[in-house]
Amino acid sequence: MALVFAAIAPHGSMAIAEWCKPEERALAAKTRAAMEELGRRFAAASPEVTVVLTPHNVHVERGMAIVLAGTMAGTLESGAVPISMRCSVDRVLATAITVAVGEAGVPIAAVSYGANDTAAAVFPMDWGTQVPLHFMGGRDDPPKPIVMIAPARDLPWEAHVTAGRAIAKAAEESGKRVALIASCDHGHAHDLKGPYGFSPASKEFDDRVVELVKRDALGELLRFDRAFVSDAKADSFWQMLMLHGAIGDRWHGDFLSYEAPTYFGMLCAAYSPGPGAREPSARPARLTAIRQRPEGGHGYETVHCRRGRPRRSLCREHAASRGLRGPDRPQRRGQPAPHHDVRGLPRRHRALRHLVQVPRCSGQFGSLVPLPGVPTLVEKGGDWTLQRLLRETDPVKLLRAPVAFGAAVREDAQVLMQVKIDALDITVLKGGGEAVGRWATEHGFRLPADAPEVLDFYANRSPIFLAAVFDADAAKAKGQNIGDGTPVHITIRPRTLGPAAHPRHRQERG
């Protein structure tokens, strides 16, 4: 499937009638009517999941953020009555978007909150997410699942457009009908008495945005002057860039309303695929969205060497290793990791994937990590030292209740390699998600409720997994404490990589 609906929607709480005090209900009447119209069009498009781009949730330095917690919940306070909302997170689509955005070269952190079991965690829902969902899917019975993404104002503007394209790609490959909402309040300096004072740039910014929306010309946002955007005090610019990247120039925008009833501007617009846009696929429905997978990338610093010249790509998922340093020089954060000089090696040895994982001593906990191919060597990391563990998202960990894996046709996981590194017992497995899950439960792992879905997601990309468990007695004998890490250096030859993991074997799907 693909994106089936998109919108620019405000997030001022006054758009919700029941939140407003009696004297406030007339303030945003035009916006409220337009939001109700967005709700009708959203329902007509029949999306299965909603992706919300919000400026008011978690902020990550020089990186976007996406929620992988199992649920988001929040309450709008300070109104006539508190209004609460609770929505499940589509963690499979969120994972696919994380991979797609990271592979596009845009830094993104997958985040959770509270409970160490991300599937059971409840992440705070901000008003930038809740207000649009109040009209579009959040009050359905049951509420539509969501994916929340926060942009990053300290990233280049073009990176937001690129991220939008990656979101659209992940949506197309997901097998689901996806709605995309850019949660936007615009210039915030319309009123001298407001918290940001008065600036004529706010009205000018809003007028220009209205004009671009009416002309289906969001791409012209990239021509704005940076000082102008800053002076306008807008909360919308970066989400609109991502929206533009996702829908391109072949969607039609329908301008519904604009007003600035207080100190900030509120605009409503609905987008639908135009004549030249790609329509949702007519492929038969899948049991789960994970059967159609995004390509490549397993969350490691990867070094591809071709024709004697190294080419680096950084994939961010699970334990994405960024900020690595070599033994001879410090590494600045944000620079590519150092690599071994392979130019003097025979061609058959040049293109290797070097992956660095750092499992941490955690008592009775273990982890399952997907690999892009069969390792030729698993050894203690010594040449590369992890200086900063960045964007660790969701390794499958021990939990309280076991998960039952089906056994209609039993296919056991194949053990390819077993290695002991310090107090760490490592097993490399080959098998489908069901087989690997069964092996894990038989070896003391207790998996979260969505483990079958997550394991299938990775097994469809590459059936190779690395299971790591700390031997508590050995760790104690070596003086390791809870939280201590053991770097593991994994080497994979290109010929062992699956079609989705090796760039030369990728094919476009019709």
Task: Describe the structure concisely.
The chain has 510 residues and is of the alpha+beta class.
Describe, in plain words, how this protein is organized in 3D.
This protein has 510 residues and is of the alpha+beta class. Helix content is 23%, strand content 27%. The chain contains 11 helices and 24 strands. It has helices at residues 29-45, 91-103, 127-135, 157-173, 200-214, 226-232, 237-247, 347-350, 433-442, 451-459, 472-477; strands at 3-9, 49-53, 64-67, 71-76, 83-88, 108-111, 122-124, 146-150, 178-183, 251-259, 266-273, 301-306, 309-314, 319-321, 324-325, 353-357, 366-371, 373-380, 385-386, 389-392, 414-421, 424-430, 464-470, 488-497. The strands form 7 sheets. An 8-stranded mixed beta sheet has the order 6-3-8-2-9-1-11-10, sandwiched between helices. The chain has a 4-stranded antiparallel beta sheet with strand order 17-23-22-21. Helix 4 crosses helix 7, helix 5 (200-214) crosses helix 6 (226-232) and helix 9 (433-442) packs across helix 10 (451-459). The longest helix is centred in the first third of the chain and has 17 residues, at 29-45. The radius of gyration is 24 Å and the shape is elongated. It starts with a strand and ends in a 13-residue tail after the last strand. 50% of the residues are buried. Residues 278-351, 383-408 and 496-510 have low confidence and may be disordered.
